[in-house]
Amino acid sequence: MMHFKFLWAGLCTVALAACQSEAPTPLVASPEFVIEVGKDPHSFAEYEKVSIEHLSLDLNVNMAAQRLDGHVVYRLNRHEPGWQRLVLDTRDLEIKDVTVIRPDGSYMGVSWRLGEPQGHLGQPLVIVLPAGIEQVRVDYASKPDAFGLQWLSGEQTSSGKPFMFSQSQPHYARTWVPLQDTPAVRYTFDATIQAPQDLMVVMGADGNPEAINQTGQYAFNMPQPIPSYLMAIAVGELNFVSTGPRSGVYAESDWIERAANEFAVLEEMIDIGEGLYGPYRWGRYDLLVLPPSFPFGGMENPRLSFLTPTIIAGDGSLLALVAHELAHSWSGNLVTNAAWRDLWLNEGFTVYFEARIMEALYGKKVRDMLAKLSWDGLAETVASADVADRQLVRDLSTRDPEEAFMRVPYDMGRFFIDWLEARFGREALDEFLRAYFDDFAFESIDTETFREYAIEHLFERYPDRATIDEMDAWLYVPGLPEFAIEPQSDAFEQVDALRASWLAGQMDLADLPVTEWSVHEWRHFLIGLNGQMSPALMEAMDQQFELTTSQNVEIVFLWLQLSIETQYPPGIERLENFLLEVGRNKFTQPLYAALADTDWGREWAIEIYERAKSGYHPLTRQASERALGLSSDIIGPN
Ligand code: BES
Ligand code: ZN
Description:
- This protein is an alpha+beta fold.
- The protein has four domains: about 5-230, tricorn interacting facor f3 domain (Immunoglobulin-like); about 240-330, 2-Layer Sandwich (Zincin-like); about 335-475, Neutral Protease, domain 2, CATH 1.10.390; about 495-625, Peptidase M1, leukotriene A4 hydrolase/aminopeptidase C-terminal domain (Serine Threonine Protein Phosphatase 5, Tetratricopeptide repeat), CATH 1.25.40.320.
- The chain is about 35% helix and about 20% strand.
- It has helices spanning about 255-260, 265-275, 320-325, 345-360, 365-385, 405-425, 425-440, 445-460, 470-475, 490-505, 520-525, 535-545, 555-565, 570-580, 585-595, 600-610, 620-625, and strands at about 5, 30-35, 50-60, 65-80, 85-90, 95-100, 105-110, 110-115, 125-130, 135-140, 150, 165, 185-195, 200-205, 215-225, 235, 240-245, 245-250, 285-290, 300, 305, 335, 445.
- Strands 7-6-10-4-3-13-15 form a seven-stranded mixed β-sheet, with no helix packed on it. The chain has a five-stranded mixed β-sheet with strand order 17-18-19-21-20.
- Helix 5 packs across helix 6 and helix 5 (about 365-385) packs parallel to helix 11 (about 520-525).
- The radius of gyration is 25 Å and the shape is globular.
- Bound molecules: ligand BES and zinc ion (ZN).
- Zinc ion binds near residues 324, 328, 347 and 350.
- Ligand BES binds near residues 299 and 300.
């Protein structure tokens, strides 16, 4: 367990609220005490003593100053009635005042103190909690460089209006709201947000508008308890188009029509999800299309998934990502990993669920292709990752939880569930999963809770199909177990044969049956060209298929990697524009890393990065700087 020393200099300094009517209580009698991170090593919150039950946000959005400014009131649940303090997670927040609210509604100032900054964990905010107090108010402002927010100026958006959005997962909510920033704690919330009158505010909550509100004031409510990493807000020149009775799309004017067309299948996807694993319990399901600097493909914010615009390909070919974020409405948002070591409970189940939705929509052939892509990617990661990172459950206690997000919890988690399906049969597994989502709805659980549940409801119920030792090998032993089942794709075997005969000079490019190929076949074809291309072959392919100008980001990305490998000039030119426009980490990070690996590309990449970085999200900056070997200013707690 890590200790974070929190020095209390003699008797605490005292912050008094204007309406204070009683002398504040000293925080502790002893001159020194220690705030220890608890069961969740990435949070200072002592949530087993006292936890947040509900929070009310009242914030003003200052686009010019790039600050959220206002206050938050917590209603607390005291698990140990005599417990005398509340510890909240904060990072780079300006804490202005802390008061408590007595049962009669009157305010009282209390002692509070910010601990020393601990790298990515931020600073514990320690507040005295007098007996009988169940409500606390913190007045605060976020800083312009808050890691969990991106502020874009009007010059950086397609509408010409400024834009702001949050990305709280894994532990960045604390950079814009002081809270118990651990997925182990769930709370409901309401929010009042004041923004400039020409912009719209949306949140991962109930109450999203259909049209701009002339007062600039918006009210939200989240009646289902959520963990802090699902707190989400965005402000910008947004428009709304409905895609069904309980679904719709938000985007800037430039994107809204293309987005609504691309996501027309959304309502049907929700129906499929419900058919598989039970009722969708969140009311509406909308999508928010963000500017291209959004650092991820998607983020499963409740009721309102956030998406990169790069998946709008014009032909619905990249919708697996929407299926993925929707699936999180069950795996992740409904049943949540209690800490980041258990991330596979969120992501592994979700990749499996995503595959089931894709299969229901597009058939088994598509499911098999996606599974094979995922297997090949995983095999590569497993071969190169540190041994301790090659297993589903990993000790992250001394690490930045950002590092939890690699392929292993996603793809190995998914192949574990695929394996359960193969051993127990689809029918039994589906029944088990429906019960699992029901029994743990709105709870945060760890791997061991899942394991016990699976033993009781699956392994013991259907003996002789699989052993607990086999399950433990998946969970706790590095590497894919040798009994894992490799997916087969007939379509990809054909692609392999065609690629081989083209490379052997036995076939013309013009004879490749590309008109029958989906983006998945294209990806498999291009991945297999790694290490086999020359500038001349690149040029021939480009003439035949116009890959440099492809509108499909997955194809472009692979093409750009091949362009770096072969130093293919048209590809390198596109690469420059791509890096200046797109901040999606999955692409930018490997592209910078590939450039940094060449003798000709590193300086050039650094120069592009310097031009691009003002438009990048803090996360993309951090990852790009690491990829380029530039120093990063984020230092861990050790
Ligand atoms: N929950 C993740 C997004 C995320 C990743 C947040 C890392 C914080 C750190 C989301 O559901 C996700 O997995 N997104 C993927 C897409 C998916 C299809 C694999 C992404 O953004 O690439
Ligand atoms: Zn996910």
